[in-house]
Amino acid sequence: MAPSFRTITVRKLHPSFGAEIEGVDFPNISDETFSEVLSAMAMYGVCIFRSTGLDDLSHVEFSRRMGDLDDMKRYLVQGRKPRLPYYELFDAGNVDGQGNVVPADSPRAHFGKGNALFHVDSSFNPRRASFSLLRAVKLPPPNNGGNTDFVDSRTAFDELPSDLKQELLANNYVGAHTIAQSRKLGSPEFFKDLDPSKEKMALHHLIQRHEPSGRMNVYIAAHCHHIEGVSAEKSQQLIDALMKHVTKEKYRLSVEWHRPGDMIIWDNRCVLHRASGGSFEGKYVRDLRRTTVHDDSPTAWGLNDRTIKGEEYVSKANLAAATKPLWTAAGSDARVH
Question: Where are the domains of the chain?
Fold first, then answer.
């Protein structure tokens, strides 16, 4: 049964997920309204808020209400300086430190091509992300592209072929994630000398329960380099099959940015997303800024060592114990929907 809301208005955008929310006064949000936003997030996975009136500081402050925030300090290597005023703000735009559009053939643009592949934020980290909050500061003129696309990985799990679903539940497979994998896939020629297999990886189960809704979810992403404990051929077959299924057109929602101040919040534990390209690339400013909330659910850390924080790595210490079946085949049907 859909929840009833007293303080917000919800307009559903897709048969299975996604909603546009009205009635949120972000500078003065009440506890009741905040609770209803969380309820809407649990149900819809992606929520769009138009003309929020948020600036950088209030964006960060609101995000902190949703949990502990990730920050970009570990990415500031080789003298790199942040463009934005708070470490908690990730630069998801195409603007350099002087406010100029990044050239389409620049190293930064090539690095960003991986964001055009369906992924979840921070699956390559030991502690994965729950919510991402992406806000528009400056947008290209209309009809130049730049949408953000989402897919519903909970409904995709529900509609997996029965034999594949039972295999996934019985084996409780573990995916190994590294950001190098999506960068290589996004721009293979530019990253021809990059070997993702030599990079640090984080381990997370492919099939997980989404705690806020109780539904099962396929936790797959372009960052997923391989599946532990199977042959390279089997691993690639499973990754390809899951990505092909989860990203089917019927599970997709494309969100258009209307004006500065628009914000999209999504739950990385139940949707994938990607940056949609367009004629704006290399031509018009698209300044988007994101905060990322650390997951605090029981599966937040996957199979990873909690003492290692804020970096991509791999730890296999608990792999053997953690690959026991989620449920027996006989009992799975009653518990996976």
Answer: 9-332
- β-sheet bridge partners, residue 12: 19
The pLDDT confidence band at residue 74, using thresholds 50, 70 and 90, is confident
Residue 288: pLDDT over 80: yes
SS3 label, residue 46: strand
Query: The tokens of 62 are what?
Result: 């609101």
Buried b (16+ CB within 10 A) or exposed e, 179-202: bbbbbbbbbeebbeeeebeebbbb
Please tell me the predicted confidence (pLDDT) of residue 309.
56
Q: How far is CA 240 from CA 195, 222, 267, 269, in A?
A: 19, 10, 23, 20
Q: Give the Cα separation of 86 and 60 in Å (integer).
A: 8
Q: Does domain 9-332 have CATH number 3.60.130.10?
A: yes
Backbone angles phi, psi at 241, to 5 degrees: -65, -45
Q: Which of 232, 233, 273 is nearest to 48 (CA)?
A: 273
Distance CA 185, CA 117 (A): 8
Per the rule left: phi > 0, alpha: psi between -120 and 50, beta: everything else, 185 is alpha
